[in-house]
Amino acid sequence: MKKSDAWKRKIAYQIYPRSFADANGDGIGDLKGITSKLDYLAELGIDYVWICPVYASPMDDGGYDISDYYSINPMFGTMEDMDELLAEAGKRGIKIIMDLVLNHCSDEHEWFKKALADPNCEEAEYFYFRNSENGAPNNWRSMFGGSAWEHVGNGRYYMHLFSKKQPDLNWENPKLREKLYEMIRWWLDKGLGGFRIDAITHIKKEPTLSSLEPDGDDGLVGCFGPTRNYPGIGDFLTEMREQTFDRYDCITVAEAAGVPYDQLGEYIGENGYFDTLFDFTYSELYSYGHAWHTCKKAWEWPISLLRDKMFASQIETAKIGFGAVYFENHDYPRASEKFLPKEYQSPLSQKMLGTLFFFLRGIPFIYQGEELGMTNTVFESIDDVDDISTKNHYRLALADGLSPEAAIKAVNRYSRDNGRVPFPWSSGKNGGFGEGTPWMKIHPDYRSVNAEDEARNENSVLSYYKKMVALRKSDEFVETLSVGDIEPILTEYDDIIAYIRSGNGKKVCVICSFSPYPLNVKTELIGKKLLLSNYENASLPENGTIKLSEFEAIVFEC
């Protein structure tokens, strides 16, 4: 069927359900909690809501270890609650997107249990089992550290590119693939609006599973080379699209790390495997070697690096398709921590960061709390942390000789749990998250950074996000700011990222200053109408110069 491209003019919002809203008072966010907050999302102007996994799961990796694709984890509610969420969201013009985890499942999935019990059963072929008398079958390193192979007795091993409780699914097996396609169609038949497809570039493995030259003192090698975007993956992705997505008017957003720009057309071109994808090149600027504690801090790399990578992504993506733009998600610390020194983090700079990403070409994804200007939290000890990746980096820091105090300080900066703390709905008990004690500590700033208070403050970050959404979706500028062209400008300035969006007979200029000082910027731009700024007294270009205050963001028709 021919699919509509209306999604390109929409706004998306991501929810980490465990931390969004707790309706039954058990301290854990749930589906009914999400349903209870749909009016908030509708008022914000949201069209798509992506919710992280709520399937049955032992929650070893935040629900990305699925034990039953057809069931809801009791901590989040029931399938009836999911049906209610779909129906109530639909009444408000909101479509629900779910995570689709296809590279691996949980070791508690019925398929894997049968495979362990009987090496000769059909389900054993759904996974990568190998026999080896001399230890692990190869020297590949798991994403979470250590060998990518787990011994189950009698010289039998299985592959797990992620946690050992996430055995990789063997996509070479056609029976497995058809079972996955049946599941996808089942969810779309329920009325789901689409999927965000997790870790999809890892489903094709180098066929010989051979060891490679080690890249670390542990004698192991990172598994990216032989398992990420490996040649032949397109056959699987084309078949999946034809058997599932092509039959529905749904949106598909791929987590497609490692796809080079010259292959983007295969992924999101006119006949691509997916509608759009997340590009990580500009959001993962820090290179941390083997552990987070070796990372550069935000102010130790130039803003021009962010600018150049961002515009490279924008320009290359625009040549062949339409991207998904974002600064935050459930796998990242808060954007302000990545892009701004602590002393410069404020509602003013938060609005500037929001402006920068929100008017790029592509469907924008707001991550829960980003619209409030939430910053990183403070974990006093590793006991405050739930994330498996954070715990691994903490262990690496200790192994490198850091004290527990220094190690927790290092992982605080980059922990994924920074974005997973309970959402602050009010300044009341538990930040309005729910009556029960939250499963993770509430952010200490909840009394000043919360949805209720910010909704009443016309100068808050939340109010500013509402203005951004309204501008992007306005009849006058929706074509320009969604599918219009993008052109980088003012690249001679190291502390400025600026661009022009053009289309539908209009041009809109976006200028964002990362400078903590006022700037006088020379430009030949002629301002026609001020559309948005994080300053009340913003001025348009005059006499070949535009005056910018510290961390100013300005959007104007030109």
In short:
The chain has 558 residues and is an alpha/beta fold.
Describe the protein.
With 558 residues, the protein is an alpha/beta fold. It folds into three domains: 6-104 and 174-381 and 416-469, Glycosidases (TIM Barrel); 110-159, Oligo-1,6-glucosidase, Domain 2 (Oligo-1,6-glucosidase, domain 2); 485-557, Golgi alpha-mannosidase II (Immunoglobulin-like, Sandwich). It contains 16 helices and 22 strands. The protein has helices at 31-36, 38-44, 79-91, 110-117, 174-189, 224-227, 233-243, 264-268, 303-320, 335-339, 347-358, 388-399, 404-414, 451-456, 461-473, 478-482; strands at residues 12-15, 48-51, 55-56, 68-72, 95-101, 129-131, 140-141, 149-151, 156-159, 194-198, 221-222, 251-255, 276-278, 324-325, 363-367, 485-489, 496-503, 506-513, 519-522, 529-533, 545-548, 553-557. It has an eight-stranded parallel β-sheet with strand order 13-12-10-5-2-1-15-14, covered by helices on one side. The protein has a five-stranded antiparallel β-sheet with strand order 16-17-18-22-20. It has a three-stranded antiparallel β-sheet with strand order 6-9-8, with no helix packed on it. A hairpin with a 2-residue loop joins strand 17 and strand 18 (506-513). Helix 11 (347-358) runs parallel beside helix 15. It is globular. The chain starts with 11 loop residues before the first strand and ends with a strand. The model has no long low-confidence stretch (mean pLDDT 95).
